[in-house]
Amino acid sequence: MQDSAGAVREPPLLSQTNHLPVPGRAVRRSGSSFFLHTMKKSLNNKNGLTREVGLSSATVLVVANMVGTGVFTTSGFILNELGDPRALLLCWLFGGLFALCGAFCFGELGARFPKAGGEYVFLRESFGKPVAFLSGWISLFVGFSAPIAAASIAFSSYFYQAFGLAKGSEIVLSPFGIPIITLSWFNLIALLVIGLFTLIHYHGLQTGTRVQNWLTIFKITLIIAFIIGGFAYGKGSFNHFSTNQDLFSAFSSKKFAVSLIFVSFAYSGWNAAAYLGGEILRPQRNIPAALLIGTATVTVLYLLLNALYIYAVPVSQLAGEVEVGAKAAVGLFGEHISRYFSGAVALGLLSVVSAMIITGPRIYYAMAQDGVFFSVFGKLNPLHHTPASSIFLQAGIATVMVLSASFETLLIYIGFTLSLCALLTVVGLMRIRWQEGKNPDLYQTPGYPLTPLLFIAANCWIIFFSIRSQPVAVLFALGTIVAGMLVYLFTGTKRKKYKHNVSLTAKTEPTY
Q: 78-87, 167-176, 240-249, 302-311: lowest mean pLDDT where?
């Protein structure tokens, strides 16, 4: 919000306005936990969302979005490509540095445009609504709904392992011989997880962030305890780090670039706080701080965790393995720890599901508020003050993906388009800087313009090798973009008809 002089100031508190508090919600609550933010109600007059997320909760959201299934699964694929433990750690370090460069850039964009929607808002301000809509469209399917489905299925898998359950029989609906829907108790658990957290975040942002904070505390505590306990008491060996391979040749190879693709997926989510720009207190300060603190924290945890994997098990036994986290736990503490570790990881995955469910709907809400998406998704629930329709839309799509026999293929073939969206967003930052110059009163990207250029180059590298390694991905990506363009044109036609009817009504309105 700006005053007449153009200076940025905080929105007024509810008690300082003529607006009444939302029914059923307290005006103010207090808390003293490190991760539980102090809630303070204020109203964002422009979009109707309340600013009640503090720095700690925004940082927790970034960490929760980043730390998911990737760090427990991708290292086996990377070692299969590189075969060098040092190159593995270098790959994770580079991924963290690239994510930090992105966080630096998104921090400035978040300070300039502290509104709900994240990349959608940033691209709208830099390239206009059509490009922004396509970014939001991709996020709806690939950026949030599909990861929610994947994380809930991963939870179900670890849940079954923890209790030693057999998956049992499945009912597959295959019209015309094509498997479409798979029904099983395994999938039912995944659907229950999605339904539970959808209802939690529908009920209110305050309740949702508290649940999110405690789940993330558990997940980070688990990882830190695993790292400390593994190095201090585990049966590993530092000899596993030795190798006869040339590190430079591994770094300069095509396989290193392919491995960076896996790492980039594991680091995705570093921009999470930007999506809640309309609900974060003191956004010009807290958005950049949350992005940077969260990304740096996760980078350190990822490096330590991968070092522990190598310490626990020889590279030859890790290469190609999917469940590298569970395998490392068994190598460090014995077979008896496997079920306990699976149960702990399952609980940690709930944080990922929760973080995705709370973040994604703010994009669809912003799109509908701009009139580029169906208007029903731009309305807030009058009681809970949350974008209820957008939350349930996302849950519905995620549910279909859980039941679909082919949603994993969707993730594989379209995942790199998320890198494209991030790349375009940072290019947009440079365009805004070129047109408007820097704002000395707000956060500035350190090392500009080298920082955004490095991020752009890294994502171009990832996209190029993604296309080379999986050329079919281009066709699926084009299909997704074309579908988004058709929806945009459809909603645009409706907007023009509505404006035309309003104009005719105004012209025929009698004057008195």
A: 167-176
DSSP 95-157: HHHHHHHHHHHHHHHHHH--SBTTHHHHHHHHH-HHHHHHHHHHIIIIIIIHHHHHHHHHHHH
Q: Give the CA radius of gyration of the chain.
A: 23
Q: Which helix (H) or strand (E) holds 368?
A: helix 361-369
Q: Which structure tokens are listed for 97?
A: 């540095």
How many distinct structural domains can be found in the chain?
Answer: 1
Q: Cβ(318)–Cβ(309) under 8 Å?
A: yes
Q: Is residue 494 part of a domain?
A: yes
**Side-chain-side CA neighbours of residue 251 (13 Å):** 10
Lowest mean pLDDT among 41-50, 269-278, 348-357: 41-50
What is the DSSP secondary structure assignment for residue 380, as one 8-state letter? -
Q: How many Cβ atoms from other residues are within 10 Å of residue 449's Cβ?
A: 13
Side-chain half-sphere CA neighbours of 164 within 13 A: 5
C-alpha angle with apex 64: 294 to 75, nearest 5 degrees?
90
Task: Return d(Cα 184, Cα 512) in angstroms, integer.
Answer: 67
Lookup result for tokens 């694929």: 77
> Number of helices (H) and strands (E), helices first, in the chain?
20, 2
Bridge partners for 276 per DSSP = 116
Domain at 267, CATH number: 1.20.1740.10
Other C-beta atoms lying within 10 Å of the C-beta of residue 500: 10
386, 392, 395, 400 alpha-carbon torsion, rounded to 10°: -170
Q: Quick check: 208 and 50 in contact, CB under 8 A? A: no
Domain residues for the domain of 450 are 14-498
> What are 415-450's pLDDT values in tens digits?
567 778 889 999 999 999 999 888 888 888 999 999
In this structure, the number of other CB atoms found within 10 A of the CB of residue 45 comes to 12
Mean predicted confidence (pLDDT) in 97-122: 87
Q: Is the pLDDT of residue 410 over 90?
A: no
Task: Tell me, yes or no, whether 506 lies in a domain.
Answer: no
In a domain, 8, yes or no: no
Mean pLDDT for 69-80 is 82
Q: Is the peptide bond before 449 cis (omega within 30 degrees of 0)?
A: yes
Stated pTM of the model: 0.74
Residue 158 contacts residue 345 (beta carbons within 8 Å): yes
